[in-house]
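Following up on my earlier message about zinc ion. Here are the inputs again, as you asked, copied directly from the submission form:
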Amino acid sequence: MRITFLGAAGEVTGSCFLLENNKKYLVDCGIFQGKSENENEAPFPFDPKDISGVILTHAHLDHSGRIPKLVKEGFKGKIYATYPTIELCEILWLDTVKLMKEEVERINRKNLRSGKPLIEPLYTEKEVEMAMKLFEPVPYDEMLDLNDIKVRFRDSAHILGASSLELWGDNTKIVFSGDVGPQNNVMEGTPSIIEGADYVVIESTYGDRLHKSLEDTRKEFESVILEAVNSGGKILIPSFVVDRAQRVIYEIMLLSYKYPFLTKIPIFFDSPMGKKVTEVYERHSNLLSGEIQKYFLEGISPFQLKNLRFLSTPDESKSINDLDMGIIIAGSGMCTGGRILHHLKHNLWKENTHLIFVGYQAEGTLGRRIVDGEKKVHVMGEEITVRAKIHTINGFSAHADQKDLLTWTDNFQSDPTFIIVHGEPKASQTLGQLLQLKGRKTIIPTYAQTLDLEKKEIITPKVTPKIDVYSLISDLENYIAKFKSQPIPQDMDTYSLLNSALILLKEIDKRSTNI
Ligand SMILES: [Zn+2]
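Thanks, got it. Here's what our run produced:
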């Protein structure tokens, strides 16, 4: 088996790995963003017709966004992915088509005037439609046999449906981390434990950084929201529409329990994709963390609040321009486009506006310029003075930080070689050094580098052990009884978590006896 790194090597975008066993496969086929954006136009360095299948870790565009282009250029194989990934891909790809169409029309108007040749979008709705037909849904934890290779998708707790991959071929086992979530991801729980591999291709987005703790992040969010609400102006939250926006809504719900007056503040999720993405999260809530599932089991969606309205059309979005106060969650997360722009244009110059960043702001983006303290910025072709109060909350990441990545690698009981990808050079190198200190072998591949994967040890796929739900329930009931009988003041958070676990287990028990 051999692997060639055709993206996410020395950078965080454009994930694409060519795997050759008897047949050829791609693991992910994402778009390049930021400085490498122009590479999306370049032809693939292989013939798409020769690829038997794409194995897709998750829906984020930097992992999935070039698949319709692959189809346009002749790919006819299958695309393997989890159910939520398939549903999210359709929403994200169609949104991309719309944005690309608008951008191409704008450029072509200029090109016509200057006599330059007209350009075409990377792909259109037609290719998205064709790609959707090639999907083959794969459940988590089941063995997928493609004759020359076997693949198992494991929950990576990054966004809904995101997976790490265990892949066997030629007596060699390679694991792809995909994007890994934090060890305690509020939305998706804990990444699956994988214990054996010959090679592990691991992401390193935050290989050189630590996130704030959940407790500190929630305290920070609470004080910012209270300060902003008290000032009486609009609160703008630029956010990724998949996962981050739902998380923000959930965090606001938690705050509303503590401060009931927050239920009187109008909240808007302003995005053409917002409602559809949230529905995918609700439909597959069984894959989310216990903390989130607890609400669904009680009949409450933590992504729907009485005072929350989804705004889909541009007219609905404009209708809130004259409103004095309210919380507006809108894409894009880094203010590079989307509905957030017109809200910034109308509110950034007002002193009582609060702008809360809940995600990473890459260099060169409008979000980053505002975070860096620029006093005048260009928004939709107009110069706007920044008078709004700016806040940044950095703890909501859906990516593992350095500590989480090391914990994830500690699960490997075999002695694999870690192939470090999906990170800026400094992040990948730092993670590599830390792994070497732990006695691990590491490689940081460069773009287009090929590695021959040699058989090291035979690892037979393990069957996931059956869980004895009944004995877990009785153990937990005993534990809760002991916990309640303690005379000292009890930790109510732990107590309510234990109770949630019990509710979940009983629900699992009920469902499994119904089958
Ligand atoms: Zn991702």
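One observation from looking it over: The chain has three domains: 2-209+398-452, 214-392, 469-514. Hope that helps, and feel free to reply on this thread.
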